[in-house]
Amino acid sequence: MLFFTVLIDLIGFGMVIPILPFMAPQLGASHFDIAMIIIAYSVCAGLFGGMWGKLSDKFGRKPVIIFCLLVTAISYVMLAFAHTLTAVYMARILAGSVAGIYGVASAMVADISNPEDRAKSMGVIGSAFGLGMVGGPFLGGVLAGDDINFFLPSMVAASFSVMAGLYAAFFLRESHGVEQRQAHKVWRKETGKVSFISLLKQTHNRWLIIEFLFHSMVVSTVTYLFPLWMGSEWDWGPKQIGIVFGIQGLLMAILQAKLIGILSRKFGELNVLSTAIATLTLGFLLASQAQQEHWMIASFFLCITGASSCAPVMNSILSKRTPLEYRGRMMGSASALGAWGRVVGPLLAGSLLTLAGFSIAWGAGIIVGLLYIAWPVRELYQARQKVLS
Hints:
Blueprint: H1 2-15, H2 20-26, H3 31-59, H4 61-80, H5 85-97, H6 101-112, H7 118-144, H8 151-171, H9 178-191, H10 196-203, H11 206-234, H12 238-267, H13 269-289, H14 293-320, H15 327-356, H16 358-388
Helix pairs in contact: 1-7, 1-8, 2-3, 3-4, 3-5, 3-6, 3-15, 4-5, 4-6, 4-8, 6-7, 6-15, 7-8, 7-12, 7-14, 11-14, 11-15, 11-16, 12-13, 12-14, 13-14, 13-16, 15-16
GO cellular component, one term: membrane
InterPro entries: MFS (IPR011701), MFS_dom (IPR020846), MFS_trans_sf (IPR036259), Tet-R_TetA/multi-R_MdtG-like (IPR001958)
Subcellular location: Membrane
């Protein structure tokens, strides 16, 4: 049931992606304004993501998800009727403020899955993201049409969020019920107020949660640079870019839904994570040197395929290391940190692109990839040392 709730919402979210870059210029926006509109969403998601996770620990996952979905619908209605740049900003700020549904959804998956199948379950939810981000932009582009109609895609996106909210209200089962919430209250009374930094130390998640920042940085860098790169070097347009993104989205959905769980059980989550990060780093290395069209496309698939394999595994590891009483807070904070990565990644890549060109901008991804892989390699080394001792 959670899969369909997330899928329906992500289709609506994906529908507005292809129209925003075209909508803003008609309202007098510059390229800088377009970038800031996109960044505003991620900034608000970063500011409020942890709060929604914390509230889900206190009041339950289901009511938080429903509330966020319905407020998201309101933001799309605001976008549909936006006739000024300020109105567009306000709509995206509101949408970003309630983007905490994704961290709460991950916490719900952790609640209802056993540790052995956790990575598989996270992968299934991840596949909903992939399918939503394939179907959403396609449907949004079709509804916008050649005349670029903004009202219709925005209103349909709002209806999708309302449908997701109603579906959640009637069919989604609460995974963090009265007993769990009561245990949370008792835990809080016994332990007192625990700061997030203290919680990270207690659960040994200090370095793991930084991985979510690195992850979002590399993904957002790829999705930012690749369209500009192909447009500049090979005169690609939205159609060709959309086809490549669509194919990758389908592959991502299949990988996360079917293979991640199998690979994690067979080889271990840390081995899968290390291999996935190495794959995406190899993609950045190839991109920094690629001169031909097919190598450029290959580098994109390597980057995104590797990155797609990381997220379910990291969510699984984080949930296992976090007490149930604080799981929503931790998963929400990880989602929020990921949102900040979607701010830092494009800003860093865009600055390097302006100053030094595509090769250097892609090369920065190699450095982030090396920082990214340091934690799982360190964990594997320590695990082997314990076995040997």
